[in-house]
């Protein structure tokens, strides 16, 4: 798609924190418009009043969900018919109904910002695997209560060496986790929507979903949340797992049925769990809070000052966290720029790879 005389319109929902200069430069290519809505009803009103008519691309932030709510069928119904691209500034894009975007005629193409947070999130994932295997939570809690390891002392934990790690969702974070887990002697198997090439899988064995459930000592959830993956791990799936399995989730809370996890923990089917994400953040299921075997982290997967290795060439000491956000914002703007200039996105979401 090329635009010659009239500049295409690009809508910003949320705010650009650091990439003002790249955003300003986009202004040479497009007319930049903004929403001033403070909640969903106001945003819908703006759309209905035609404020965003002729908008071709939309830049949105994760925090903008507070202003518009989810990008679901209702919102897609009022967003301008001219809209062709949604550039999401984040790795996880479960706030967007990608299926509904694909179903629109013509479809709305969606992009995210992959890779920038792979290292930091995979680190937390590994921390949770080790903590859950070794059952560190019990001893750590007892120590803070002045009881050393507690009485009775926690049961002995498990070594990662020789254990089978089943990665469900072998994307950026899953592949990064694989490298880390192998350094601890774990054998990695994975299940993905599609089997990866030999280069991408780097020796990890591709297995069916059921085989992953039944043969893993540790099940790690690293797939996006969407209609197909909501509660992909529930009662029936726990029943297929090994007795004493460890379950770790750094993806999104709702890929797992939390109530079913609590039941599986209580019955001893699941030995322990490590969680960074929850179904209704910041609410935590009381059964998880009270269970000493569970490692709980308050969604801190990307909570680091350092940039990921993929972005490290851009970093400078003292402003590293800013550089991460800047890189993500610039990436999102590049998606829009490519869409306007050549009609395709730099990083389309995997569900739309064949669109
Ligand atoms: N805890 C955090 O702070 C944090 C940080 C970044 C990302 N995340 C979450 O982690 C998720 C994974 O991130 P990523 O960057 O690795 O994403 P990614 O898109 O690179 O990888 C996801 C993988 O899951 C696979 N997949 C999708 N549906 C599947 C299914 N039904 N069964 C099996 N595999 C399936 C995809 O094919 C892809 O390979 C994100 O969607 C996001 O929600 C969390």
From TrEMBL:
A molecular function (GO) term: hydroxypyruvate reductase [NAD(P)H] activity
Cellular component, GO annotation: cytosol
Domain D-isomer specific 2-hydroxyacid dehydrogenase NAD-binding as annotated: residue spans: 127-301
Ranges where the D-isomer specific 2-hydroxyacid dehydrogenase catalytic domain occurs: 67-349
Pfam families in the cross-refs: 2-Hacid_dh, 2-Hacid_dh_C
Alphabetically ordered keywords of this record: NAD, Oxidoreductase
Keyword NAD included in the entry's annotation: yes
Top-level lineage group: Eukaryota
PROSITE patterns: D_2_HYDROXYACID_DH_1, D_2_HYDROXYACID_DH_2, D_2_HYDROXYACID_DH_3
CDD domains: Mand_dh_like
PANTHER family, sorted: 2-HYDROXYACID DEHYDROGENASE-RELATED (PTHR10996), HYPOTHETICAL D-ISOMER SPECIFIC 2-HYDROXYACID DEHYDROGENASE (EUROFUNG) (PTHR10996:SF269)
Similarity comment text for this entry: Belongs to the D-isomer specific 2-hydroxyacid dehydrogenase family.
Protein name: Glyoxylate reductase
